[in-house]
Design goal:
By secondary structure, this protein is of the alpha/beta class. It has three domains: 7-100, Arc Repressor Mutant, subunit A (Orthogonal Bundle); 144-384, Type I PLP-dependent aspartate aminotransferase-like (Major domain) (Aspartate Aminotransferase, domain 2); 388-492, Aspartate Aminotransferase, domain 1, CATH 3.90.1150.10. The protein has 18 helices and 14 strands. Helix 12 (284-297) links the parallel strand 8 (267-270) and strand 9.
Length: 505
């Protein structure tokens, strides 16, 4: 007869969920810790061995061992591994923990409806844990950034800071930086603006959040590229907007579909210069149609220009905001992709009618961005160092894009992954054969140390063909070659055959 399951497993069997983002060892610790607090595990109770409990719950022994070791470190259990582990008696001076309420009570009592939405809304299709590794999208070449130059600029600020720079400044950002951003946007992206329309924010995500807060009431429809950037979708949902998925084809956002689905939408979100993640460019005809709709409907367009500086053929494309003249388009840019994500500086260029409102909202959230980084960035832009850095990165990224194409062509059969061409940006989209489950492939690749987010994670409606988003900018040729080798294994599957899924009905 099989051994009798340890009694502790009776309340653990249905409590652990491998689909949650919380590690299983932490889930196990939380459940045992709660049982200690509410009396289900009394002092002196002997816990099952790590081997027995792992076998009953279907976990690795290391997972159970990690939970036991944490409980022992906090004094909740005593004993040695292999010699028996028992629940310790609580010292008289230490109050017993309050029993944990039922999950439903926690959800209803502790968070508002919007708070619950925020708690469960993801801002990325990538795991975003640990060190950067191929092919995590959006990672710049940090090994080629001029950090010595940057350090000198930050040090120069702190060597002679002015009193007005150390106090409460303008919520919109330091004047020299706003002037420099306006000048760069006019020259590089044909944006029509002056410094009074520029708002310095803590990365483009804050810019998207501000726009959503200012322009959306509960239930207001928002056009969202589908597939599209998860962080934008999360910002609209968190502000109560009703996200309307609008399909994307070879010419970008299908404006006709948006008009049909939500003709009176309040806001439309687009990445016209390099659609994320598909990589296509919004055609001139679609741009004209989108602007015409916005004027008719009294709607706003949110242009996320996240990486158009890196165009590998010809010059960067004219911004949608420049074509519009700045009347209905809110332009959002970031330095996370062109410099480094830890800088946490981006900008919004608002229509004149909205500039003051954006400034007031910025003050309400976190008052102002850090002064030292703003001053350093202003000088970086003003003396041409930023433009020189961009030119170097365009050359480097073009070479790394070519290296990725070569590595995939060498290691991955064309029938298993079709890389879509893209003349701009830091990533490529690879389409899988019909019927192949992109999430399963992505999970296998991640287990091998390669990040290749599934296209379906960016979509509200499951795409007809799955795909993988492959970032290349932040990885040298060796890392790209190794990533392609691992990706080929993930595409083949452990048994040498691709993983399939049912076609959507």
């Amino acid at each position: 007869m099989p051994p009798r399951p340890p009694v502790v497993s009776t309340f653990l069997a249905n409590a652990l969920d491998p689909r949650r983002r919380v590690p299983l060892s932490r889930q196990l610790y939380d459940e045992l810790r709660a049982a200690l607090g509410d009396g289900r595990l009394a002092a002196g109770t002997r816990l099952p061995s790590t081997r027995d409990l792992a076998g009953v719950l279907g976990l690795s022994r290391n997972t159970v061992l990690a939970a036991y070791e944490q409980l022992a470190a906090e004094g909740w259990v005593t004993g040695r591994v292999g010699a028996g582990t028992r629940v310790a008696a609580a010292p008289a001076s230490v109050p017993q923990p309050v029993p944990r309420p039922a999950p439903a009570a926690v959800k209803g009592a502790r968070l508002s409806a919007r708070g619950r939405m925020l708690a469960r809304t993801s801002v990325s299709a990538s795991p975003m844990k640990g060190a950067d590794r191929a092919f995590r999208p959006g990672v710049p070449a940090l090994d080629h950034f001029p950090f010595d130059d940057w350090r000198r600029r930050v040090a120069a600020f702190w060597s002679r800071p002015r009193a007005e720079q150390l106090g409460y400044g303008e919520p919109g950002g330091l004047a020299p930086l706003r002037e420099a951003i306006a000048a760069h946007a006019r020259a590089a992206r044909a944006v029509r603006c002056d410094a009074s329309q520029v708002l310095v924010v803590s990365g483009s995500q804050q810019g998207l959040d501000l726009a959503a807060r200012l322009l959306l009431d509960d239930g207001d429809p928002v056009w969202m590229e589908d597939p599209g950037y998860v962080g934008a979708r999360a910002a609209f949902q968190a502000s109560g907007g009703r996200v309307v998925p609008v399909p994307v084809d070879g010419e970008g956002l299908v404006v006709e579909a948006g008009v049909r689905l939500a003709p009176r939408a309040r806001l439309a979100y687009v990445t016209p210069s390099h659609q994320y993640p598909a990589g296509v460019v919004l055609s001139r005809e679609r741009r004209t149609a989108l602007l015409a709709w916005a004027r008719r409907a009294g709607a706003w367009i949110l242009e996320d220009d996240y990486d158009s500086e890196y165009r590998h053929v010809g010059w960067p494309l004219e911004s949608l905001q420049g074509l519009d003249g700045g009347e209905r388009v809110i332009y959002v840019g970031t330095f996370s992709k062109t410099m480094f994500p830890g800088l946490r500086l981006g900008y919004v260029i608002a229509p004149r009618a909205l500039a003051a409102a954006f400034g007031n909202a910025r003050a309400l959230l976190d008052r102002q961005p850090p002064a030292a980084e703003q001053a350093a960035l202003a000088s970086f832009l003003e003396d041409g160092a930023y433009a020189r850095h961009l030119r170097r990165m365009r050359t480097l990224y073009a070479a790394r894009r070519a290296a990725l194409l070569d590595a995939v062509a060498r290691d991955v059969p064309a029938a298993r992954l079709e890389l879509r061409p893209a003349e701009t940006g830091m990533h490529l989209l690879g389409l899988l054969p019909p019927g192949v489950d992109d999430r399963a492939v992505s999970a296998r690749a991640l287990a091998m140390g390669v990040e290749a987010p599934a296209l379906s994670r960016y979509a509200l409606r499951r795409p007809r063909r799955g795909g993988l988003v492959l970032g290349y900018a932040g990885y040298d040729e060796r890392a790209l070659r190794r990533g392609a080798t691992m990706l080929a294994r993930a595409l083949a599957g452990e048994d040498g055959s691709a993983t399939t899924r049912k076609e959507p009905t």
